[in-house]
């Protein structure tokens, strides 16, 4: 027989065919690829769901942080509004304080009237104290332009330089914030 006929007469049993197998479970590579193709839609769905979950978690965290910032900001605004309204209310009562102070300085023959004005002034002082309103110390103090408003200047050698010798209108602070500057006369 010729070589040609010899090859043709060989049967498939004479030829050794090796199939590649995957390391997992000894499944042939072709079958593993088809199995992977079958699970790919599930894997893709899982990945999509995981990405959507991560996006929703991030959205939730951002929303929670935004709400927390909103809560803090509104609390600060509420406190600022309260402080501003408290200051404006106290400012509105300062002329009443000034008038009661002037009334107490006036001499009167009616002791009941003087006692009533004094009681009213004491009550107003108590209310101002409860609201954390304090009078700015002025008489005899060193002039401070951050606290006092000098409206007059006098030469007096018996007093130290920049000393307040007279207070025309007392100044007030509310929680360390100035409501009204003290109107004063400064020496030297």
Your description of this structure?
Helix 2 packs antiparallel against helix 3. The chain contains three helices and six strands. The strands form two sheets. It has a three-stranded antiparallel sheet with strand order 1-4-5. A three-stranded mixed sheet has the order 2-6-3, with no helix packed on it. It folds into two domains: 89 residues, GrpE nucleotide exchange factor, coiled-coil domain (Hemagglutinin Ectodomain, Chain B, Alpha-Beta Complex); 55 residues, Roll (Nucleotide Exchange Factor Grpe, Chain A, domain 2). The protein is of the alpha+beta class and 188 residues long. A hairpin with a 2-residue loop joins strand 4 and strand 5.
Key traits:
188 residues; 3 helices; alpha+beta; Nucleotide Exchange Factor Grpe, Chain A, domain 2; 6 strands; 16% strand; single chain; elongated; 2 domains; Hemagglutinin Ectodomain, Chain B; 3-stranded mixed beta sheet
CATH architecture of the largest domain: Alpha-Beta Complex
Fraction of residues in helix: 55-70%
Enumerate the strands of the largest sheet in spatial order, edge to edge or round the barrel: 1-4-5
The ordered string of helix (H) and strand (E) elements is HHHEEEEEE
- CATH topology (fold) name of the largest domain: Hemagglutinin Ectodomain, Chain B
Q: What's the number of structural domains?
A: 2
CATH homologous superfamily (4th level) name of the largest domain: GrpE nucleotide exchange factor, coiled-coil domain
Give start-end ranges of low-pLDDT stretches: 4-24
Number of strands: 6
Sketch the major β-sheet: 3 strands, antiparallel
